[in-house]
């Protein structure tokens, strides 16, 4: 990897790819999992770059990752159409602060 490709990356450790049933597996060391907030059972997305590098990230942000939650919310909101209505709006009467 040249210097430009390392920009923004933090070297942590190495790991070995092992056979696991009909698949291959990589064990993620504790120091890495703590840094990226991976926990047992977390769903992740895998991306492969043009350079055949693998990028892993959580599919749904963790509750304490406010910036990722905000981006996730905005991406979901962008998929909404103006005429879409939440099921609560269709069946529930207004109550509390939402009454205008």
Explain this structure.
The protein has 100 residues and is of the alpha+beta class. The chain has one domain (3-82): Pemi-like Protein 1, Chain: D. The chain contains four helices and four strands; from the N terminus they run H-E-E-H-E-E-H-H. A two-stranded antiparallel ribbon has the order 1-2. A two-stranded antiparallel sheet has the order 3-4. Strand 1 (17-20) and strand 2 (23-26) form a beta hairpin. The longest helix has 13 residues, at 66-78. The protein is elongated and about 55 Å long. GO terms for molecular function: DNA binding.
Keywords:
100 residues, alpha+beta, Pemi-like Protein 1, Chain: D, two-stranded antiparallel ribbon, two-stranded antiparallel sheet, 4 helices, 4 strands, 29% helix, elongated, DNA binding, SpoVT-AbrB_sf
Low-pLDDT residue intervals, each spanning 5 or more residues: none
Query: Cα-atom Rg, whole angstroms?
Result: 20 Å
Mean pLDDT: 80
Residues in helices, as a percent range: 25-40%
Structural class: alpha+beta
Identify the CATH architecture. Answer: Ribbon
Tally the helices.
4
How are helices and strands ordered from N to C? HEEHEEHH
- Beta-strand content estimate: 15-25%
CATH topology category name: Pemi-like Protein 1, Chain: D
Q: Which strand order do you get reading across the main beta sheet?
A: 1-2
Q: N-to-C terminal Cα separation, in Å?
A: 58 Å
Largest sheet: 2 strands, antiparallel
GO molecular function: DNA binding
């Amino acid at each position: 990897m040249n210097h430009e490709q390392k920009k923004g990356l933090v070297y942590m450790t190495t790991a070995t790819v092992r056979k696991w049933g009909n698949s291959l597996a990589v064990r993620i060391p504790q120091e890495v999992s703590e840094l990226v907030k991976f926990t047992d059972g977390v769903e992740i997305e895998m991306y492969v770059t043009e350079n055949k590098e693998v990028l892993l990230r959580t599919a749904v942000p963790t509750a304490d990752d406010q910036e990722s939650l905000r981006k996730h919310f905005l991406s979901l909101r962008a998929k909404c159409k103006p005429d879409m209505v939440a099921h609560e709006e269709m069946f529930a009467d207004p109550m509390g602060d939402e009454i205008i």
